[in-house]
């Protein structure tokens, strides 16, 4: 053991790196290390998402999601400007494509106003001025939405951690935790890294890391992986989309649904869907982990979730396996799109916390257990909100450090 750290952060995604950055900003000279099992940063959720900076439109008023999204969007833009990270404020159009969606559109507008999100309601003609190819009967124009190169943002955060004297140790998979007087040993690749305080930002493996802690016999949730698959529009179809186009979300479903995203590189991605993944890093159907699958099936909440969303789940799976059906879903917003207009656009795996009742945990979930702070749920808008989330987790870690 070569060094005793004040704080060790597990996970070099955006939340973990932001936490380390915030710790070093708050306490210059603090001994901080970030441990990452991959060869680089942002290799999972932080680097496999839509790249959208969210406004806070969708979230329950008063929730951490709503608060963090608004603060995060501004903070990320400021940090990106200061560190030459590509980003843009583009706005987005949320479209009702038939009259049956108008009531939900109005309810969404009310929620946005409650969250302080600037928006305008557009009629069909006004919506066509924004996106001429989209068959909207009405829409919301949400100006405070944008795009960001999140992998580049992670790289910039890692560089700032290093400049402030912290360490980012890649290829350091955590295999166990051992409490010792005054702190904890983090076991990795046959060695132990000693720390006074541990912060678990392990994302897809956050519950598993929490259960490594010797005096933690249970946590209230399990991570259930959902794969979100994207497609890209071929060039002649991509020209029909000017910006970001979202459907009116169904409040009964946990995900926003398939949407159109013109990225910083002008590529238009469509998706994601939401299908159960057979591995926590299951970016394709062929990636199967018996351990991950069995762990999910042993959690009672998974069975209750499956019963409650069986119809929706089967529909998502069918669209995953059939490009024609996926194209039909896209065609609701962009008529004329056919299977041959789509090419593979990558996938991400969402670390979704599910409780024992089968409920999807909607908001951020951070727990303290002894000398450790565990981030057990940091779903979308986690990338947008990474800086304020990191500041909050950092403050909790410093409170633990000061109390020891």
List keywords for this structure.
FAD/NAD(P)-binding domain; 9-stranded mixed sheet; alpha+beta; 33% helix; 3 domains; 404 residues
The overall pLDDT, averaged over residues, is 94
Which fold name corresponds to the CATH topology of the largest domain?
FAD/NAD(P)-binding domain
The helicity comes to: 25-40%
Number of domains: 3
Architecture of the largest domain, according to CATH? 3-Layer(bba) Sandwich
CATH class of the largest domain: Alpha Beta
Q: Specify the number of helices.
A: 12
Spans where pLDDT lies below 50 across 5 or more residues: none
Large-scale geometry: globular
Ends distance: 21 Å
What does the model show?
With 404 residues, the chain is an alpha+beta fold. It folds into three domains: 4-46 and 151-220 and 362-403, 3-Layer(bba) Sandwich (FAD/NAD(P)-binding domain); 92-143, no CATH class; 226-241 and 250-355, no CATH class. The protein has helices spanning 14-26, 64-82, 102-114, 124-130, 150-163, 206-210, 235-238, 290-298, 300-308, 310-321, 323-331, 386-403; strands at 4-10, 32-35, 52-53, 87-89, 92-96, 119-123, 138-142, 146-148, 167-169, 174-180, 183-188, 191-200, 221-233, 244-247, 259-262, 268-271, 275-276, 342-355, 365-369, 372-377. The strands form three sheets. Strands 5, 6, 7, 13, 14, 15, 16, 17 and 18 form a nine-stranded mixed sheet that branches. Strands 1, 2, 9, 10, 11, 12, 19 and 20 form an eight-stranded mixed sheet that branches. It is globular.
């Amino acid at each position: 053991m070569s060094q005793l750290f004040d704080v060790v952060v597990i996970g070099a995604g955006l939340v973990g790196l932001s936490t380390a950055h915030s710790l070093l900003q708050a306490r210059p000279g603090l001994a901080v290390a970030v441990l990452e099992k991959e060869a680089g940063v942002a290799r999972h959720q932080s680097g496999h998402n839509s790249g959208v900076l969210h406004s806070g439109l969708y979230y329950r008023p008063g929730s951490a999601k709503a608060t963090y999204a608004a603060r995060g969007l501004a903070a990320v833009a400021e940090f990106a400007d200061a560190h030459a990270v590509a980003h843009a404020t583009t706005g987005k159009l949320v479209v009702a494509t038939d009259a049956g969606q108008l009531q939900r559109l109005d309810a969404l507008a009310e929620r946005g106003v409650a969250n302080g999100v600037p928006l305008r309601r557009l009629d069909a003609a006004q919506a066509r001025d924004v996106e001429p190819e989209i068959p909207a009967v009405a829409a919301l124009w949400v100006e405070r939405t944008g795009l960001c190169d999140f992998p580049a943002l992670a790289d910039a955060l890692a560089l700032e951690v290093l400049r402030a004297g912290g360490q980012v140790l890649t290829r350091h998979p955590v295999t166990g935790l051992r409490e010792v007087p005054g702190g904890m040993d983090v076991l990795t690749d046959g060695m132990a890294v000693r720390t006074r305080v541990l912060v678990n930002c392990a994302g897809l493996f956050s519950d598993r890391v929490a259960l490594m802690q010797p005096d933690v016999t249970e946590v209230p949730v399990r991570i259930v992986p959902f794969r979100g698959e994207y497609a890209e529009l071929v060039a002649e179809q991509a020209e029909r989309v000017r910006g970001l186009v979202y459907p009116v979300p169904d409040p009964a479903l946990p995900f926003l649904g398939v949407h159109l995203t013109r990225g910083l590189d002008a590529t238009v991605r469509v998706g994601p869907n939401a299908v159960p993944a057979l591995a926590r890093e299951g970016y394709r159907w062929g990636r199967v982990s018996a351990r991950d699958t069995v762990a999910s099936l042993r959690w009672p909440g998974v069975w209750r979730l499956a019963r409650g969303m069986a119809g929706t789940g089967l529909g998502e799976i069918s669209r995953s396996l059939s490009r024609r059906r996926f194209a039909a879903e896209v065609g609701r917003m962009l008529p004329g799109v056919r299977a041959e207009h789509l090419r593979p656009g990558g996938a991400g795996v969402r670390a979704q916390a599910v409780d024992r009742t089968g409920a999807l945990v909607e908001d951020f979930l951070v727990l303290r257990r002894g000398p450790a702070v565990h981030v057990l749920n940091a779903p979308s808008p986690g990338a947008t909100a990474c800086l304020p989330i990191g500041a909050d987790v950092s403050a909790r870690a410093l409170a633990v450090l000061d109390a020891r």
